[in-house]
Specification:
InterPro entries: Chaperone_TCP-1, Chaperonin_TCP-1_CS, Cpn60/GroEL/TCP-1, GroEL-like_apical_dom_sf, GROEL-like_equatorial_sf, TCP-1-like_intermed_sf, TCP-1_chaperonin, thermosome_alpha
Bound molecules: adenosine-5'-diphosphate, magnesium ion
Distance between the termini: 36 Å
Oligomer: single chain
CATH superfamily of the domain at 32-157 and 421-528: GroEL-like equatorial domain
Organism: Methermicoccus shengliensis
Pfam family, one: Cpn60_TCP1
CATH class of the domain at 32-157 and 421-528: Mainly Alpha
Radius of gyration: 30 Å
Shape: elongated
Protein name: Thermosome subunit
Keywords: ATP-binding, Chaperone, Coiled coil, Nucleotide-binding
Strand content: 15-25%
Number of strands: 20
CATH architecture of the domain at 32-157 and 421-528: Orthogonal Bundle
Length: about 575
Amino acid sequence: MARGTGDKVVVPAGHAPTGQPVFVITDKEKTSGRDARHMNILAARAVVDSVKSTLGPLGMDKMLIDPLGNITVTNDGAVILREMSIEHPSAKMVIDGAKTQEDVAGDGTTSVVVLVGALLDAAEKLMDAGVHPTVLVSGYKMAAERAQQVLDSLARRVERTNDATLREIAKTAMMGKGPEVYADTLAEMCVRAVKGVEDNGAVDVKENIKLIKRVGLRSENTELINGIVIDKERSHPSMPRRVKNAKIALLNKGIEAKKPQTKAKMKIESAEQLAEFMQEDVRVVEEQVKRFAELGVNVVMTEMGIDDIGNSLLSKYGIFAVERLLSDDLKRISRAVGARIVSTASDLKPEDLGEAGLVEEVGKAGFLADKYIYIHDAKNTKAVTIVIHAGSENVADEVERALEDALKVVACAVEDQTVVAGGAAPEMEMALRLRQYANTLKGREQLAVQAYAEALEAIPKALAENSGLDVIDTLVALRSAHEGGRTTAGIDVFSGDIIDMWEANVIEPLRVKRQMISTATEIVCMILRLDEILASERREPSIAEKHWPKSYEMAKRRGMKGNIPGT
Ligand code: ADP
Ligand code: MG
């Protein structure tokens, strides 16, 4: 975006900004210049303050209460930001940035926000001293570019086969987030899950790794299923409960006798006629079931229903069936077991069938919600499920959030194969080298690069503060360790000592840090470039505007507004 300062954000109050400036229709309130900038920074800072104290393994928790009174206790910055209801456009930009970080790198959301806050604070000081925002923006960009180079120089390679390091990466991301006693088990599971779905060096966590929560059993029962778990039960209890060497057919219709047309009347006058009619019904279903048997199918899963006749015939042939699956689940199963989804049995060809080592129904009888279908050892194991067991829903949620972060960072490490030490080591090293770089620059940009360096130190500061350490002492010690060439020196949050984070196995993917720099810089520059806020009066959108936005826009431009119904 080659834009200078002076961009105007015009936000119809109450409407989300799209990132790009929206143009105003009626401006009722207008704030410009320094005031606008100050207000933007103030609003962004409110977001920063709400998550800063959660940074690091010893960060504090926040209690979130939604409008329905549900309570979540978490120290996951991403969750807090997601739940906050924010109105101010620049505060929303910060939240969008955290979301980008989460999407791209899976971790480092709190760090991004803390860095944004520090960069804005530093910028404000310089602006008060008369530095123009344009200069700041270009200086920050130079600093960010150099910081990325520093990060690259710090990166180490980790092979995909290096499970031990991958486990440490998972543990670093989960630090302080889940039940720590099981951290080793959970980390091991993350690595197995990610490697189970890795495909030519790429990992699609969202698509291929599913997390399911079950409340009741203890956390150590949390298990990794090579395959899929679905929240369903067999369509009839007289079917087999376990099927080994499953041959699986997937249908996007059901197995049902044809229903008579709604309005059609049928006159059945004798018992024979009734029997005949019934037999015809049975015959249609039986043909389908026989086709399954012919192909050696022993598991059938359908998107629509299976009726009584279907159930009794399937049971008779010893076929395990599940009905009314969500179409997304059906697709997931199809990928995992290598089956093609067809509409009816008559369309089925041998090559459409999928395979799995074992399909079974598990769970307590009598509790519908407690039954699950497990598909183990699917032919194509590009899908795995982690079943999280926990004593309560809150704990299950906590473990889920910890696992989500850990899975994503392990996936990043497997994809990129580059990592850096954590514990604020990279931030301090970047700060040090940016200061050296600033000395080689002339003019006001030098000030901006120095300010960037100072802002990076907000991360070790917050880490120290949240761990109950003396902030100044810790920072001074950390700085001098880096000046002495210890590039991986970081903060041991438990003892307060400055230690080698690499040796302490606090390891993070390079991508998390690179993305932190680029997202934070982008957002800060965007906020600094705004010098006007024009808020139009809040109003409800008309029916036409809401439902046919394009036609509404067009009509409005042609001055036909009064003629559109609903305006
Ligand atoms: P974010 O949302 O930014 O990931 P976290 O609360 O997860 O925030 O904290 C991440 C920070 O904590 C990183 O800088 C990471 O290196 C650091 N960290 C994680 N584990 C440790 C540890 N055992 N010792 C010191 N620092 C740690
Ligand atoms: Mg984290």
